[in-house]
Amino acid sequence: MKPVRKLKRLNKRADFSNGLNVAILASGNGSNFESLVKTTKEKKIKVNIKLLITDKRGAFARKRARRLGVKDIFINPKEFKSRLEFDKKIVKLLHKEEIELVALAGYMRIISPYFVKSFKNKILNIHPALLPCFKGATAIKDAYEYGCKVTGVTVHFVDEKVDHGPIILQEPLKIDSGLTLSKLEEKIHKIEHRLYPEALRLLSKGKLKIRGRNVKII
Ligand code: GRF
Questions:
Q1: What's the pLDDT tens digit per position in 84-94?
Q2: pTM
Q3: Ligand 1, atom 14: nearest CA belongs to which residue?
C-alpha cells in the first residue's frame, strides 16, 4: 500500500493543484453526490471523487455511482458492535483509498469523535437550512412549518457536534407566501447542487482559511 499523501494544513493555504482525493458518504437519494461528480467534472474543479460509501444497502446513491463510474462500497452498520467500530472500519478504508477529503451528502449517521479527529478539518457537510437554525434531519420541513420567511443552505466543516462546525458558505432563500413544501424542497436542492461544488472548488484551490469558528475565503 502506498503511503497516504501528507496533507498540508488547510489554514496554511494548502495547494491541492494535483487534485484532491475525495470520498462521499451518503445514505439515500444521492442527488448531491451526483451533482458533485458532474459539476466538478464540468467545471474542471481539481478534485477526484474516488469513492462513494453508503451505510444503506438499498441507497439510490449506489445506482447513481454505478452509472457515473464511481467506486461504491456498502458497509453494513449491523456488522459492528458500536458506532466507534463502524467508524474505525470507514477510516481504515479511507486511508487505504488515499482519501484526503470527505464530503457528507445526506449521510444519516452521527460520526464519532474518532472519525472527526482522523480527518480534522477535512470533512464537509451540507445542510438544507441556515445553521444554526433547524439542525437535524427534517430541516426544510421544520423551517417551513415554523413559518420562516427565509431559509437556505449551509456548507460547513464537520466537528464533534451535529450540524455545528465552521461555516464555509451559506445562501438564503425567501419563502414567498403560497410556496408549497415540495416546491421549497426543489428550490433548496437546486441551491445545494450549486453551493456544494463551489465549496469544493474553493477548498481545492486552497482558498479557505479556518480561524476558530470563522472560515475566511481568500
Ligand atoms: C440534502 O438536503 C442535504 O442537505 C441533507 O440531506 C439531503 C440529501 O439529499 N444533508 P440527497 O441524498 O443528496 O439527494
A1: 999 999 999 99
A2: 0.92
A3: 31
